[in-house]
Amino acid sequence: MGKGIIVSSTGSGLRFRGKQGWRQFLGAKQEMLDAYDRARVQAKAHEVETYHGSIAEAQFRDWLGSFLPRRYGVTAGYIVSQAQEEDVRLPHFDVIIYDQRESPVLFVETNPDTSTKGAARAIPAEHVLAVFEVKSAFNSKMRFQGVGTP
């Protein structure tokens, strides 16, 4: 077996000692960051700067979907619980990881301005494995916002 090689994450100052594949893994990370940076520049021209957040969410879902085994689906959308009453409003989640082999998709919300990858899907709670909220910044004010804690 060969010795590990040191690969640095461009611009981060971090260095990882690893085997083959780290360079590609970090390259995918850099592609996500580059897309986000381009979107931030474009968002500066908007009255309300939210475009870069949508790009960050989509890039993270794409990367996660290509990284995880095919058994797991990655989508934005809603988690539906059988225990909830019909009149309860469903919160939207940026990233839902679910067992796509076993889970039905209860409904799909599409937007004519986005691709089918950007569709929001409703997943039954019992098939959800993880939920992420994607934030474009992380500071003391926002640290509990994603988990709903004050």
Describe the structure using short key phrases.
2 helices; globular; disordered N terminus; 150 residues; two-stranded antiparallel sheet; 26% helix; five-stranded mixed sheet; alpha+beta; single chain
Structure notes:
With 150 residues, this protein is α+β, with helices and mostly antiparallel strands. It has one domain (5-141). The chain is 26% helix and 25% strand. It has helices at residues 22-43, 51-67, and strands spanning 5-8, 15-18, 72-80, 93-99, 107-109, 120-124, 128-132. The chain has a five-stranded mixed sheet, with helices on one face. Strands 1-2 form a two-stranded antiparallel sheet. A hairpin with a 6-residue loop joins strand 1 (5-8) and strand 2. Helix 1 runs antiparallel to helix 2 (51-67). 13% of the residues are buried.
**Helix segment count?**
2
**Count of folded domains:** 1
Helix content: 25-40%
Give the C-alpha Rg.
18 Å
Distance between the termini: 50 Å
Give the overall shape: globular
Largest sheet: 5 strands, mixed
Q: Strand-residue fraction?
A: 15-25%
Structural class: alpha+beta
Mean pLDDT: 76
Count of β-strands? 7
Q: What letter string, H or E per element, gives the SSE order?
A: EEHHEEEEE
